[in-house]
């Protein structure tokens, strides 16, 4: 416990100094104290009214910012959708039925769709199940049926049905369900996709679904799963969708060229996607109609990739620095080295996915050579190490004198 010279105490939680008399609780042993603000936050957290503990959209977005780089609009949309979703479930007894704010995430591979959903579930402390739409089939066919997604969510909630019913279900690769039908010119798959979309409707719109749970020793049991409190997020890369949006915008904008934005680069047309475009892509209207929040994630540029390497709480560079630290080594990257890693990754077109493999490659030699060498203090990765195959630069302990 730190007592400041003007008689205030330092709150053990926010570490801010309180003025004399302002401390809410100060234990007699002088081990911990808590200020009035922190006490109020704790009370809100444990309050029985779940709405009180629900972070506001702005707080949620600020917390997401610590984990997810860029994608500002998508983070805002998710924060609002989540806020409305959990507010809505706390109103279950009222006679006003609020529609579910299920979300569709649209964006190229490796732009952070799954990462965003994972971060969100962790921040909210709700169970999350990630399923793949391509693995699903209509009931009666060989393969997983859509109820298996709910079984997955129940597993993620350690079999706690109440918790599972307030969880998040992420269905990836939803674009692969787009059928050939309609005016869509792109090459989807045939019959299966539309049937799975139909089957998914029941989960998405909120209803009671019988779920078969495989138990130990072939004993299966049935659980009635109420999906009205489950936040469903679908995601996909939707290759070719941009062109459909562009074509629609071009038809509308004919003769109105002067209204185009004069300054700055044109925003990605995918930010202006409408349900009609998704319908044309091959999703059935009933399905798109139940995903009212359309959030687009943009491709990551060099600067964003460098930020992803270094900034988030669990950033890759920090992870490797930690590993090196355990061998008594200080791992450092020059700014040029980080940019070179990002550029290498950009060339692959897999967003941030290639970053880890790129770092593994760059760090292989030092990770092989250096453990056990206690004369080395600093390991510098330079641009030459990344793109020129030069060895990492070492600074020995004696040199630091
Ligand atoms: N915007 C981002 N901010 C922080 N990390 C990101 C971001 N985008 C991708 N990543 C990193 O790249 C990895 C792959 O991204 P992922 O979420 O799987 O992409 P997607 O689901 O869009 O294909 C993630 O695990 C995460 O570490
Ligand atoms: Mg993904």
In short:
The chain is an alpha/beta fold and 401 residues long. The protein has 17 helices and 14 strands. A 5-stranded parallel sheet has the order 6-7-10-5-11, with helices on both faces.
Report the top-level CATH class of the largest domain.
Alpha Beta
Strand order of the largest sheet: 6-7-10-5-11
CATH level-3 fold name of the largest domain: Rossmann fold
Mean pLDDT rating? 84
The name of the CATH architecture of the largest domain is: 3-Layer(aba) Sandwich
Described by strand count, sense and barrel closure, the largest sheet is:
5 strands, parallel
Protein structure class: alpha/beta
Share in β-strands = 15-25%
What does this protein structure show overall?
This protein has 401 residues and is an alpha/beta fold. It folds into 3 domains: 9-46, no CATH class; 50-255 and 267-296, Rossmann fold (3-Layer(aba) Sandwich), CATH 3.40.50.300; 302-400, Orthogonal Bundle (Helicase, Ruva Protein, domain 3). Helix content is 41%, strand content 16%. It contains 17 helices and 14 strands. It has helices at 36-46, 50-53, 57-65, 72-89, 113-124, 147-156, 161-164, 192-205, 241-253, 275-281, 285-289, 302-310, 316-325, 335-348, 355-369, 383-387, 397-400; strands at 9-10, 17-18, 23-26, 33-35, 103-106, 128-132, 168-172, 208-214, 220-226, 231-236, 293-296, 330-333, 376-381, 393-396. Strands 6-7-10-5-11 form a 5-stranded parallel sheet, with helices on both faces. Strands 12-13-14 form a 3-stranded mixed sheet. A two-stranded antiparallel ribbon has the order 1-2. β3 and β4 (33-35) form a beta hairpin. The protein is globular and about 70 Å long. It starts with 8 loop residues before the first strand and ends with a helix. Mean pLDDT is 84; it is low at 180-190. The structure holds adenosine-5'-diphosphate and magnesium ion (MG). The site of adenosine-5'-diphosphate has 17 residues, from α5.
